[in-house]
Amino acid sequence: MRYLKNVSTLTIDRKKCTGCGMCAVVCPHRVIKIAERKAWIIEPDLCMECGACAVNCRENAVSVKNGTGCAYGMIKAKLKGSSEECECDCC
Amino acid sequence: MKEGKLRFKNTDGKPAFSDILGKLRMRLGIKRSDYRVNPGLYALNSPGAGSPVLVSANYKLSFDVLRAAASDLDAWILVLDTKGINVWCAAGKGTFGTEELIKRVKKSGLSKYLSHKTLILPQLGASGVAAHKVKAKTGFTVKFGPVEAYDLRKYLENGQKCDEAMRTIRFPLAERLVLTPVEMVLSWPLLLGSLSLSVLCALISGGLPVFLSLLSLSVLAILTGTLLVPALLPYIPGSSFAWKGWITGLISSVIYLLLAGISSAVFIAGALFLFPAISAFLALNFTGSTTFTSPSGVKKEMLYAIPFCVISAAAGLVFLFYFAFRGFSL
User: E strands of B210-314, at which residues?
Assistant: First the structure.
């Protein structure tokens, strides 16, 4: 199943990347592949911006505006006037 | 129990009757925020110094899934305090996180007791836990195991290695369906609103036939958004959830109007503006339950979907009240 195209905020700075492969390991949608000792985004439209890759990059080469893709939570957060974090108790 | 300096509680993989009831309660969304186990170290069956350490959340459903999947293994289960929230959501919120894991590892006394230095975490915990920071602070190597607990045995037999399938999250029919009761329960305000609308229109004019038609359309729209769209998710064309909900809601409303033989143009217009919009909104809300929607995508979709749903529903209400006040017949 695929969601909206061309929206993912995932980027990899290949100058900082050492090709350790941790980002590729933790990605639950197999968005990243390691080739020629660098990480490559091969399936950007499968990215759900969970942030696992960025959190586990020791070189800070991976960046993504992470969060939960939950409309209910975003609406609730907006109504409460808080930041756009998940504010629901649904998960 | 104490073993050396290790403090732990015993557990096994067998679910008690209360666990089954609890699972049912969670799936229905009743007091879901209050289903916890105490954080800390648990001995699953009879582990020793060489047994694997599995890290979990203190949402009881997560803990139960893990101990059931590992029921015939001897293992340590280290439960983090995630405020009763499952691994994935807690990792997103940061409670299944680096700091909490470091704290629990230090408190557990595991490092002096174990003959190895490895912690096995569910892969979906990776968005909260930075493996390299845990290593630096505790000396333990964090290994991210499979996405699903049921692959755990295979992972361990495989020398703690995942294949691509174990690393990939899916969203099969059974998993989509198990989430739908909660969606239905959460949609009660819409049901209440539709019920009031049905009663009002029936009282103004039209009586029982109008009441029944509006109530049926409402229930159908809610079931479409909360059950039919999740069930048919991969088969409904398009990628936007609101669109999927709207088109499915439109089809189900049209089918009802045809079968019921309703011929009032004003009523039909009202129904088609209102009910597909309700299905669209509910389908949009299902994004939070899926395993593949990104916040950027949901934000983009909400930008047009929410105003569309509100305006369309308002137009629908105008038509339906006009129908009722003029005393048209179905």
Answer: none
In chain A, residues 17-56 whose CB comes closer than 8 Å to chain B = 22, 25-30, 46-52, 55-56
Of B301, B255, B281, which Cα lies nearest the Cα of B193? B281
Residue A30 counted as domain residue: yes
User: Dihedral sign, CA of B121, B125, B127, B129?
Assistant: negative
Smallest Cα distance from B143 to chain A, Å? 10
Torsion angle (degrees, nearest 10) of CA B92, B93, B96, B102: 110
Instruction: Say whether pLDDT at B302 is over 60.
Output: yes
Three-state DSSP class for residue B134: helix
In this structure, which amino acid lies at residue B79? Answer: V
Range of the domain at A35: 11-80
- Binary contact (B234, A25; C-beta < 8 A): no
Q: B231-264 pLDDT, tens per residue?
A: 999 999 999 999 999 999 999 999 999 999 999 9
B33, B61, B127: best mutation site toward chain A, by most A Cβ within 10 Å? B127
Taking the C-alpha atoms of residue B144 and residue B140, their distance in angstroms, rounded to an integer, is 13
d(CA B61, CA B66): 9
Residue B13: pLDDT band (50, 70, 90) is confident
Nearest by CB to residue B292, choosing from A22, A29, A65, is A29
Tens-place pLDDT, residues B62-121:
999 999 999 999 999 999 999 999 999 899 888 999 999 999 999 999 999 999 999 999
A5 touches chain B (CB under 8 A): yes
Residues of B in contact with A51 (CB under 8 A): 92, 127
| Whole-number pLDDT of residue A86 | 55
Report if residue A20 sits inside a domain: yes
pLDDT tens by residue, B149-160: 999 999 999 999
Decide: B226 and B184 in contact? Cβ < 8 Å.
yes
Split at pLDDT 50, 70, 90, the class of A84 is: low
- Domain with residue A54: its CATH number is 3.30.70.20
Asked if B293 contacts B241 with a C-beta cutoff of 8 angstroms, the reply is yes
Token pair of B115, please? Answer: 């003959």
ipTM for the complex shown: 0.89
Q: How many helices (H) and strands (E) does chain A have?
A: 3, 4
Architecture of B2-169 per CATH? 3-Layer(aba) Sandwich (3.40)
